[in-house]
Amino acid sequence: MQKFISVTKPSMPKLNEYVVEIKGLWKSRWLTNMGAKHKAFEAALKRYLHTENVVLFANGHLALEYAIQAFDLSGEVITTPFTFASTTHAIVRNGLIPVFCDIDPIKYTIDASKIERLITDKTSAIMPVHVYGQLCDTEAIEKVAQKHHLKVIYDAAHTFGIPNVANYGDASVFSFHATKVFNTIEGGAVTFSDSTLKTKMDRLKNFGVLVENDHVYFGGNGKMNEFQAAMGICNLRHLAAEIKRRRVVVQRYQLRLKDIPSIAFMQYTKESNYSYLPVLFKSKHIRDAVYTSLQEKKIEPRKYFYPLTNKSSIGRNGTVQTPVAQDVADRILVLPLYANLLMVDVDRICDIILEQKILES
Ligand SMILES: *Cc1c(COP(=O)(O)O)cnc(C)c1O
């Protein structure tokens, strides 16, 4: 039987470490609603992220939705179509219109030089994404935003573990989903510069409650529970080691595949969190062939992010052309990457890729 290899596998602490962390919950019977673990994890994140304001959420998507709501945005939001559906859906579910800007062909992040021409009198914010953990051109984005008085909310779902990433723009939104480089099973957080928004966000995620029986916002339920927070406390202890092991895995792939002209790797830096391993093929034809061959051998790479969010069947503003994003989406493939991925498995994946005659075409 062939071993199934998924695109990722969540990192978990030793069972006993987690048990120690959650033991007290059997005594306190305080399972959610901002208990001791929630407080401790929020404090730990403030230190880790070097930021003043952190609010935890049940998941990254809700964190995006509540962050947008907290800023009272209206009209149009300029964003990227080269992202997970969540970014676009969070905008639309807040009653806003996403306006899609094309991306940079090297970094895959929003092309800051193309933002200004999309600004109208209805634009209220820019929502860029640090795709695969590659930081956007934050300086250029800041310049445009200041000139036109726009808010900047970063979808930072891929960037946890990169130094100083929490302090760009007005807010950054993190995902701690099981598939991310750092997980709290499900989970997310928003960091932001305006401290006056702290109580507002805390209330929004808890039905807008001010005091018992009084509600000051139309909030919902976005709370992170104690078991999630406990998982976060444990996983945070091991994150640095996780990232190091991921780097070793990436280096192995690069060693094996570097001489193939039809495959290009993303550039990692000293500060990378090695959250994803995207490779860009010379053509869609080659990408799709490699994808199919790997799947036939029970290996599951992912076409992140294909189709573009402005091209899916519910895509809005699908008429706006984003040719660079389209070209990247057609040729990209994200290969399996996680800390415990064995070198023999990396080699097997590389062998299958290298066997493809189509690579020479
Ligand atoms: C994972 C992800 C999200 C959503 O986070 P969840 O925690 O899964 O809800 C949002 N944006 C991007 C770019 C993501 O990759």
Q: Evaluate the radius of gyration.
A: 21 Å
Total DSSP E strands: 12
Which strand-content bin applies to the residues?
5-15%
- List the ligand species: pyridoxal-5'-phosphate
Q: What is the spatial order of strands in the main beta sheet?
A: 1-7-6-5-4-2-3
Mean pLDDT: 95
Individual helix count: 11
Sheet with the most strands? 7 strands, mixed
In helices, the fraction of residues equals 25-40%
Secondary-structure class: alpha/beta
Low-confidence stretches at least 5 residues in length (pLDDT < 50)? none
Q: What shape does the CA trace take?
A: globular
Distance between the termini: 32 Å
The ordered H/E elements are HHHEHEHEEHEEEHEEHEEHHEH
Account of the protein in words:
- With 361 residues, this protein is of the alpha/beta class.
- It has helices at 15-22, 25-28, 36-49, 60-70, 85-93, 138-148, 197-204, 226-257, 284-296, 323-331, 343-355, and strands spanning 53-57, 76-79, 97-100, 123-127, 151-155, 171-175, 188-192, 209-211, 214-215, 263-265, 278-281, 332-334.
- The strands form three sheets. The chain has a seven-stranded mixed sheet, sandwiched between helices. Strands 10-11-12 form a three-stranded antiparallel sheet.
- A hairpin with a 2-residue loop joins β8 (209-211) and β9 (214-215).
- The radius of gyration is 21 Å and the shape is globular.
- The mean pLDDT is 95.
- The structure holds pyridoxal-5'-phosphate.
- The site of pyridoxal-5'-phosphate (PLP) has 14 residues, from α4 and α5.
